[in-house]
Amino acid sequence: MSQASHRTATAAAPAGMKPGAGRVSALRGLLPFLRPYRARLALAFALLCLGSGTILVVPLAFRDLIDSGFGTGVAQGRALLGTAGLDGQFLVLFGLATFWAAAVAARYYAVSWVGERVTADLRCAVYARVLGQSPQFFETLQTGEVLSRLTGDTTLIQTVVGSSVSMGLRSLFQFGGGMVMLAVTSAHLFGLIFGLMAVLALPIAAIGRRVRTLSRESQDRIADASALAGEILNAMPTVQAFTQEQYEAQRFAARTETGFRTAVRRTRVRALLAALIIGAVMGTIIFVLWIGARQVQAGTLSLGELGAFVLYAALVAGGAGTLAEVWGDVMRAGGATERLLELLQAESAIRETSAPQPPRRAAQVGIVFDHVGLAYPARPGVRVLDDLCLEIVPGERVALVGPSGAGKTSLFQLLLRYYEVSAGAIRIDGQDIRQLALRELRRGIALVPQEPVIFSASALENIRYGRPAASDEDVLAAARAAAVDEFITRLPEGYATFLGERGTRLSGGQRQRIAIARAILKRARLLLLDEATSALDAESERLVQQGLAAAMEGRTTLIIAHRLATVQQVDRIVVIDHGRIVETGTAADLRRQGGLYARLAALQLAS
Ligand SMILES: Nc1ncnc2c1ncn2[C@@H]1O[C@H](COP(=O)(O)OP(=O)(O)OP(=O)(O)O)[C@@H](O)[C@H]1O
């Protein structure tokens, strides 16, 4: 049975994934990734303090500039620019601006670097973790979902770590420092501004929350449309064969339209929010300016102080605006981190033993299935294998035959420990496979699966996947044995020919031969062939059988086959039905017995 056919379309947390904690607090999970770069972060923070400090000094310089009558007199008492003339004062301002620009650039570089680095580290960590999961994990989690987490979610985190957080901190400094300076400059006006802001903050916060909900909705709708497109693009030949292009285009259009409507709703509320914020900020500033101007008229406030006050007010307003925006990003990144941490903390359903035994490397493998039972985790109530006992002696070639769905492939799945037995045990060379390290177990097995996988690489690289350290001669020998030679030499660039994504540029039978060559090259002691030659014509099959016979020589081999003609040469045939062994023996024995095998054989001969 193919794994793909068991994948369900649910996005629910797959087996082994822990549910995440609260959203923003999930960001704490990023700490281990940030820790190695704390020196750079400290530097960025120092640069942030410097930059923010500089920008807070600028309005003071303006105050002095105005109060000194633009260099014609000297401001009384607390002059920042001292007794410098007009040119000198502007020189100081230029100096401040240059210093600020340099501090901002250096901080931007340092923070973005950390953002990119952390994202790359996170991607690799999540990917490595996902690669270690058992097939059960992929039954529930769609590949597209993992990909979107690896790209979309990490990019969101990159935005936050690489820019939003520094923007937020800068704005926080600007906001806090600006507030203090406002109070210092004019306590009266500060009181006014503070009161007005407090009144206006509530409705703005409420609308902001609504924008956030709508943003999330709009992201979800976009993801829906992409998920649909992803699935359909992978199934184009079927879509076209059933002439469903128009239907699929309409389905996509309908989802995109929903996304558009959600986006428009969000934009409408956002526009209202923008109007409200600008109105509130400008209204407050103008109102305060009006009161301040009256104070200047009355002589209780200097013109420079009023100027500085307005600049600080603008800084505070800008800081508050950025903070609100950054908070939205931080919330989204919280969600993204949560989803990534779920993947990062996922435990494989197959547990490695803490103290693996070293494998006994006998020249040939003996296998014992000892009262093996299996119920797949997705269907715990259904016994796919039931109390199955089978002993395979070293070097034996055994064929597993039986109706579709009888449980033949499931035996292979258990041998490779993709799934755990529900009852009994499997022993290889007398060792329970649960006592072996997974790597060691699988290193000793070469598999030709029912649906061979071809990677988007050359033919040579595809075969070499069986044993990456193999020499070119070994790869070519394996290719010849599997009759790959026969068709590869006819391809334009021979073994260097690129085979296309998922081997789309090969026929089914050619793909099978590549998979067989790969397994032969692995030179494992146990060979598992799952319908390895089902897609071959009689002539190619004869060629491949010769190669396989060479590969089986001296190796324990298990062969699943539907076409009984292909298993006449094996040592023993085991007939499986409904998860149980119903007959065993040589082909001739079984035909004589007149049981299930004889019936299957008669049907095949008749057809
Ligand atoms: N991952 C899974 N989760 C739940 N049930 C599964 C899973 N894989 C296989 N099954 C079920 O287990 C039963 C045996 O499947 P298996 O693939 O072993 O059959 P098979 O004998 O190899 O069939 P075929 O000859 O058609 O490949 C089937 O009924 C199938 O639906």
UniProtKB/TrEMBL annotation:
Keyword annotations of the record: ATP-binding, Cell membrane, Membrane, Nucleotide-binding, Transmembrane, Transmembrane helix
Name this polypeptide is given: ABC transporter, ATP binding/permease protein
Gene Ontology biological process: oligopeptide export from mitochondrion
Annotated CDD domains: ABC_6TM_bac_exporter_ABCB8_10_like
Pfam family, one: ABC_membrane
GO cellular component: plasma membrane
Coiled coil stretches, renumbered: none
GO molecular function: ABC-type oligopeptide transporter activity; ATP binding; ATP hydrolysis activity
Gene3D superfamilies: ABC transporter type 1, transmembrane domain (1.20.1560.10), P-loop containing nucleotide triphosphate hydrolases (3.40.50.300)
Recorded topology in the membrane: Multi-pass membrane protein
